Amino acid sequence: MDQEVTKLEQRLKDQIYALDQSAIVAITDGRGIITYANEKFCELSQYTLDELIGKSHSIINSGYHPKSFFTSMWRSILKGEVWRDEICNRARNGDIYWVDTTIVPFADSDGKPEKFISIRYDITHKKETEAELEKDRRRLLESEKMASVGVLSAGIAHELGNPLGAIRGRLEMMEMMVSDDNWDQDRILQSISKMILSVDRMSKIIRGLKAFARD
Question: What stretches of the chain adopt beta strand conformation (E)?
């Protein structure tokens, strides 16, 4: 029996050692007060163990998450549920870092929360990469929008340029007729009718453009 207990103790020590080497580990009491933090926690947060013990995790709160985020977290772990999510924290020097977090609750014999073990992994680089990819995606969308605007502008210039040219030509012709005192009422009325059609065509194009821009 003693040998089995010794083996179990050694296995537990090995597992704790492996966990400490790979993860950020903290233990709190039932009120969320830190009672243990491993070296990785201290290294990432830039607080010493003495500075962390007796404090809550609010010491590394970055202010990124709304109050409802942590309210939901507490609601889950107080019911004995394992909670998982990504949390944005702030180190002592003001640097922001992200951790993939799992909180495991442990209850006493009466079923009341006795302690919580938090196991975290630093995912700051992953979040920074995601942010850069999102910036690239937005830049690409903006470039595509600008290209579309360029094509649209060229089309509008062509569609409005033709009727404007026709209107100008007819106005010049009417100006010459008036200057020469050579009135031709039928030709003038015909020109006015065609100019009205051209104006209506341009108005239709502009209405379509406004509808497109509104969408």
Answer: 24-29, 34-37, 83-90, 96-107, 113-122
Tokens coding 169: 């030509």
pTM value surpassing 0.85: no
Least confident among 102-116, 122-136, 153-167, 192-206: 153-167
Q: How far apart are the first and last CA of the chain?
A: 77
Determine what percent of the chain falls in helix, strand and coil, rounding each to the nearest 5.
60, 20, 20
Do the beta carbons of residue 47 and residue 59 sit within 8 Å?
yes
Task: Report strand pairing: 34-37 vs 83-90.
Answer: unpaired
Provide CB contacts within 8 A for 188, sequence distance 6+: 174, 177
- What's the burial of 118, exposed, middle or buried (CB within 10 Å: 0-12/13-18/19+)? buried
Residue 184 pLDDT > 80: no
